From TrEMBL:
Family matches, as InterPro entries: Multi_antbiot-R_MarC (IPR002771)
Family to which this protein belongs: Belongs to the UPF0056 (MarC) family.
Organism listed in the record: Hyphomicrobium denitrificans (strain ATCC 51888 / DSM 1869 / NCIMB 11706 / TK 0415)
Name the UniProt record assigns to this protein: UPF0056 inner membrane protein
GO cellular component: plasma membrane
Length: 252
């Protein structure tokens, strides 16, 4: 017969193990959730700033002005779907593709940060030039029957700048395997949300033109460009820090 103190001790140990397992599970779930939210909050402003759905909608309304209203809405949805595909592919395989060609993560972060910062700098100090370039791309094929992918998706909506930002974000992925799923879930959700914003803004382009106008749209572009510049500098700094840490580790 087991004594009462002994049984109480066993019950206490069992309860402690159960509590410890529950605490670890909760901590693991919180880490996953925090990883998703953190990745989402970094990727969303970066992608939204470089895609700039509001500014793009003003040009979209001019390029598609001769088409029926229903066709313009359908075209907006197709551009949004194509844009989501471009961003997701760049996010999911961009950094891995660069690594396949022997480009280190640190080098990719430095180069990606420079490209993002340079794009943001141009948007910040000369937004009209960026708008004119986009309008030239879109207007070059305005008379063609199917312009959803080229030029409205590439290079008008998700051009080289967007792809560079997505690859730079992909380069900041965590090194641990268990943290990869939250990272890619958060960044992919941000890309899908930006594509949804493209669909809404392009489909409502006429209303946005009446509401904002070019001047107010440029103010929003400058604000988003400054945020994008900060993100580019942050990516650049993480690449430089990683390169220095790797060099010091090899030196020792």
């Amino acid at each position: 017969m087991v004594s009462l103190p002994h049984r109480l001790t066993e019950d206490g140990i069992r309860a402690g193990r159960t509590l410890g397992k529950t605490t670890r599970d909760r901590t693991g779930h919180m880490d996953i959730f925090n990883g998703m939210i953190g990745s989402f909050l970094v990727a969303l402003p970066a992608l939204f700033s470089i895609v700039n759905p509001i500014g793009g909608a003003l040009i979209y309304s001019q390029v598609t002005i001769g088409r029926p209203h229903a066709e313009r809405i359908t075209l907006a949805y197709r551009v949004a779907v194509y844009s989501a595909i471009v961003m997701l592919v760049s996010l999911l395989i961009g950094a891995s593709l660069m690594s396949f060609f022997g480009v280190s993560i640190e080098a990719l972060r430095v180069a990606g940060g420079l490209v993002v910062a340079a794009s943001a700098w141009g948007m910040l100090y000369d937004p009209k030039e960026n708008e004119d370039r986009k309008q030239d791309h879109a207007a070059s094929a305005a008379g063609e029957s199917d312009i959803a992918f080229f030029p409205l998706t590439m290079p008008f909506t998700t051009g080289p700048g967007t792809i560079s930002v997505a690859i730079a974000l992909s380069a900041s992925r965590p090194s641990t395997t268990e943290a990869l799923l939250p990272f890619y879930t958060g960044t992919s959700a941000a890309a899908i949300l930006v594509a949804l914003a493209v669909a809404i803004c392009y489909a409502s382009a006429d209303r946005l033109v009446a509401l904002l106008g070019p001047a107010r749209a440029r103010v929003l572009t400058r604000l988003s460009a400054f945020l994008l510049l900060c993100i580019g500098v942050q990516i650049l700094m993480s690449g430089v820090q990683g390169a220095i840490a790797t060099t010091l580790a090899h030196a020792h």
